[in-house]
Amino acid sequence: MSTFDLNISASGLQHPFDTQSQSPFSRFQQAFSLRFAEWKHRRTLVKLLDLEDAILEDMGTRRADLFAALELPLSQSASKALAQWHAERKVTG
To answer: Helix crossing, 78-92 with 63-71: angle to 10°?
Structure first.
């Protein structure tokens, strides 16, 4: 089997998250469930605001970072943003 044959046989496969083949209700349901999960996660981040600044620093985050992450739209992951900001802070000091 050549590479060309492999590409032809794989062309009929669909990506599991292919939004073109999903119904509008399925896309809505998927988007809603992702945003709901993000909202639930942010509720736990709010509880971190009760901690002292020294404890937050030990955890590798700052109070300002938590506020900024909570202000992001629900379509963006607050956890990924916090991790990215922490990594940038480690590099820049």
So the answer is: 140
Contact between 45 and 69 (Cβ < 8 Å): yes
How many Å apart are CA 83 and CA 86, to the nearest integer?
5
CA distances (Å), origin 18, targets 6, 21, 26, 57: 21, 6, 11, 41
Q: DSSP character for 77? A: -
Task: Please give the residue that has the higher pLDDT: either 65 or 91.
Answer: 65
What's the pTM? 0.66
Tell me the C-alpha distance between 75 and 79, whole Å. 12
| Contact assessment for residue 64 and residue 43, using Cβ atoms and an 8 Å cutoff | no
Domain residue spans in the chain?
Answer: 22-92
Chain segment 1-60, per-residue pLDDT in tens = 444 444 444 444 455 555 566 888 999 999 999 999 999 999 999 999 999 999 999 988
